């Protein structure tokens, strides 16, 4: 059965939930298709969030997402725990089909599906995720004050994280599988000039080891000699990139070479009128909960303006 909606939000997390709050308060009662497995986005798997404004003592990621969801429900948003299979544009309305076979029509659609951290895929990574393994230095660096830290990666993000983490860790070792870096020269030079940062090239992490307290050491292999050694570490920050969760869109809207949805200037308008995008599926730079929430607000206001013109 095909169901009619003024507005549909695809995805949840800070961007999707904020968009739902704003559209709900505007009277549009949006449907949020929040995802089949992890509604609430990446913060569902985050322990303590200390940098979201308004929580001086920090807040657990799942608690923050639950509060946002309840706030959206208060203003009339409804939620469906499913994934979207296809999005089709028919001009005045869009058709959304879910993996479970439900079909919806909407005048406006906001895409807020976020992105996924690229992972190493090695033993111990999943086991110690949130207990020493992290994908966000600004989120978790504080927890490793005075402890040995490892950053894995060779791009600007990895070097920026190493520089940031050097404020907290007793030492920071940046491990990269090649001798050359994707990072800009100034970032590499800055790291080399930082006495707390050691750069280990032509090397990969083969396994992460620990105990009930968290990560304790890594198995590191030189890719040229295959020589193995153990490296003490309590924090492992994986900075090998992100993959936006946009493959399901196909050619429904324009995306860049990396898969991020392209938008018009500082707005959230995509290349298709009536389809908007917000959060980490657009933002390849900041990727913070607060910036995603702000973009979700903008997407809702852009969608509200569109609906006011087309629906009245």
Automatic annotation (TrEMBL):
Keywords: Disulfide bond, FAD, Flavoprotein, NADP, Oxidoreductase, Redox-active center. Its EC number is 1.8.1.9. Binds 1 FAD per subunit. It is an enzyme of class 1 (oxidoreductase). One of its GO terms (molecular function) is thioredoxin-disulfide reductase (NADPH) activity. Residues 7-296 form the FAD/NAD(P)-binding domain. The keyword Disulfide bond applies. One of its GO terms (biological process) is removal of superoxide radicals. It catalyses: [thioredoxin]-dithiol + NADP(+) = [thioredoxin]-disulfide + NADPH + H(+). Transmembrane segments: none annotated. The keyword NADP applies. InterPro entries: FAD/NAD-bd_sf, FAD/NAD-binding_dom, Ferredoxin-NADP_redctase_2, Pyr_nucl-diS_OxRdtase_2_AS, Thioredox_Rdtase. Its cofactor is FAD. Gene3D superfamilies: FAD/NAD(P)-binding domain. Belongs to the class-II pyridine nucleotide-disulfide oxidoreductase family. Homodimer. This is Thioredoxin reductase. The gene is trxB.
């Amino acid at each position: 059965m095909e169901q009619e909606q003024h507005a549909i939000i695809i995805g949840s997390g800070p961007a999707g939930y904020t968009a739902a709050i704003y559209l709900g308060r505007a009277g549009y009662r949006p449907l949020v298709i929040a995802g089949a497995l992890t509604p609430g986005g990446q913060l569902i798997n985050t322990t303590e969030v200390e940098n979201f404004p308004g929580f001086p003592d920090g807040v657990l990621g799942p608690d923050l997402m639950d509060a946002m969801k309840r706030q959206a429900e208060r203003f009339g948003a409804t939620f469906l725990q499913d994934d979207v299979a296809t999005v089709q544009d028919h001009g005045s309305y869009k058709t959304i089909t879910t993996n479970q076979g439900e079909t919806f029509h909407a005048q406006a659609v906001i895409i807020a599906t976020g992105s996924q951290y690229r992972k190493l895929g090695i033993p111990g990574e999943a086991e110690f995720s949130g207990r020493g393994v992290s994908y966000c230095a600004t989120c978790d660096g504080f927890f490793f004050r005075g402890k040995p830290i490892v950053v894995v990666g060779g791009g600007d993000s990895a070097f920026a994280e190493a520089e940031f983490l050097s404020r907290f860790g007793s030492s920071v070792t940046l491990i990269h599988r090649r001798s050359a870096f994707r990072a800009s020269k100034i970032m590499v030079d800055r790291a080399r000039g930082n006495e707390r940062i050691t750069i280990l090239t032509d090397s990969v992490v083969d396994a992460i080891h620990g105990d009930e307290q968290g990560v304790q050491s890594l198995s590191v292999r030189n890719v040229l000699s295959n020589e193995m050694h153990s490296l003490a570490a309590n924090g492992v920050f994986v900075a090998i990139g992100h993959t936006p969760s946009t493959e399901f869109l196909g050619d429904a809207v324009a995306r860049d070479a990396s898969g991020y949805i392209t938008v018009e200037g500082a707005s959230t308008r995509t290349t298709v009128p009536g389809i908007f995008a917000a959060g980490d599926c657009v933002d390849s730079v900041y990727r913070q909960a607060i910036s995603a929430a702000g973009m979700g607000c903008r997407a809702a206001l852009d969608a509200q303006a569109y609906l006011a013109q087309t629906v009245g």
